[in-house]
Amino acid sequence: MDGLGRRVIVAAFDGWNDAGEAASSALTVLRDEGAYEPVFTVDPELYFDYQYTRPSVAIETDGRRTLRWPEATLYRPTRSLRGTQLWLLTGVEPARAWQAFVSEFVDVALREDITGFVSLGSMMSDVPHTRPISVFAGSDNDQVRTLLEIERSNYEGPVGILSVLSHAADAAGIPTASLWASVPHYVAGHTPSPKATLALLDKLEDITGAQVPRGQLAAESVAWEASIDAAAADDEEMTEYIRQLERTRDTWDSPEASGDAIAQEFERYLRRGGDGPTKPGRDEPRR
Fold first, then answer.
1. CA angle, corner 34, sides to 32 and 37, nearest 5?
2. Fewest beta carbons within 10 Å, which of 98, 107, 180, 189?
3. CA separation for the pair 177, 149 (Å, rounded)
């Protein structure tokens, strides 16, 4: 799409802004289904707290034990394709020196002639798993909002690394957009959430015009939803609660409903501090 250009970074980070692992899983699908090479990775000593995000030990195929350190890396596609090319920025949210962290990646983006930046996040929300996953699409760039027909968030308050990256990219002249999937808060035991990942990738394709692979997400989404149906079947209270959420969602989706319903839910989520992350993370809301 003209709003974001033809060389677009897609960013997602592990942690609080990744409910149901939906955002990080989206980048995993893109990377696994494509051909990418690392362009730049930060020095972990500068940005990560190892007591919070610990290194891990892995055993290689030859039996050697190696240490793997937390990282944040930008990948570029190795094949030239027609249309929009998606670059991938993924890793662990830094624990310190955020301004220096984002400056490093923005400098690389400018050097590589990146034309757009899209952040992916997912949040726990009061939504039913039986309905399509809602994705809030927003931008602070007037032209991007007009061309892509997306919203502008009115949120004010603490933010996470995705917002800091977006702000720095915008300041450097790189148009930005953000996508946030609403994950049912009662499915914490059913992580990852492939249905939310699929919704993010569908919306990413819509706003970028890129050919976005889905892998096995369609089948995995059906199995995920069935597993929650089975878990809820023996719990009358949970079944009734899900029915209430379905009625509310159906009201939102009715022709009489306000078009701001998803945006309002997104704002409510941010203002209450993003209760209910599925995996450990920082305590600042993401945007």
1. 90
2. 189
3. 11
CB 184 within 8 A of CB 128: yes
pTM of the predicted structure, to 2 decimals: 0.84
Write the class of the CATH domain 7-271: alpha beta
Q: Are 90 and 255 contacting, i.e. CB atoms less than 8 angstroms apart?
A: no
d(CA 104, CA 17): 21
Closest CA to 9 of 142, 120, 101, 141: 120
Q: Are 157 and 171 in contact (CB under 8 A)?
A: no
pLDDT value for 265: 57
Query: Mean pLDDT in each 10-residue stretch from start to end of the chain (287 residues)?
Result: 88 89 96 95 96 92 92 93 91 95 98 97 88 92 93 86 95 96 81 93 96 94 90 83 84 60 56 44 36
Q: Among residues 230, 268, 234, 233, which one has the least CA distance to residue 248? A: 268
Asked if residue 148 lies in contact with residue 198, where contact means CB atoms within 8 angstroms, the answer is no
pLDDT at position 190: 65
Write the DSSP assignment of 1-56 as a string of letters: -TTT-SEEEEEEEESTTBGGGHHHHHHHHHHHHS-EEEEEE--HHHH--TTTS--E
Q: Where do the structural domains in the chain lie, given as residue ranges? A: 7-271
